[in-house]
Design a protein that fits this description.
- Strands 2-1-6-5-4-3 form a six-stranded mixed β-sheet.
- The protein has a single domain, classed as Nuclear Transport Factor 2, Chain: A.
- The protein is built from four helices and six strands; from the N terminus they run ααββαββββα.
- By secondary structure, the chain is of the alpha+beta class.
């Protein structure tokens, strides 16, 4: 399967949009089995099983999540997304976090997902430690 600009962009848009439905299977559907997820301020997570565990922990902590795309640039196999993530914690606290994500795509699957954000800002707003 050729990774075109359009298919790469659609894959990433679908992933980002899937968080609102809160289905772990939908969120993880676009990832390769050997994908790497890196919240850049902390250690990378390797493999779909460990990525699923991290995403499940986020779902367990938040009652709502909306990942709002501000700008997106796509090339075949590479998508850059500037966004603001809005989370509602289970206790009602709101988290508003500016993020830039870099997605590498190969054979129609996300192989690497790196998010760049201010760790202290996230931890201060959410009360979570990453």
């Amino acid at each position: 399967m050729a990774d075109t600009k359009e298919t790469s962009e659609t894959l990433v848009r679908d992933f980002l949009g899937s968080w609102q439905a809160r289905s772990l299977d939908s969120i993880c559907r676009g990832f390769a089995d050997d994908a790497v997820y890196h919240n850049v301020p902390v250690k990378p997570v390797e493999g779909i099983a460990d990525i699923r565990a991290v995403f499940q922990a986020f779902l367990d902590a938040f009652s709502d999540a909306k990942l709002d795309i501000l700008s997106l640039a796509a090339e075949p196999g590479l998508v850059l997304v500037e966004r603001v993530d809005y989370f509602t914690m289970n206790d009602g606290r709101k988290v508003v976090l500016p993020v830039t994500g870099v997605f590498e795509v190969k054979n129609g699957k996300i192989t690497r997902f790196s998010d760049y954000f201010d760790l202290a800002d996230f931890e201060g707003q959410s009360g979570m430690k990453l």
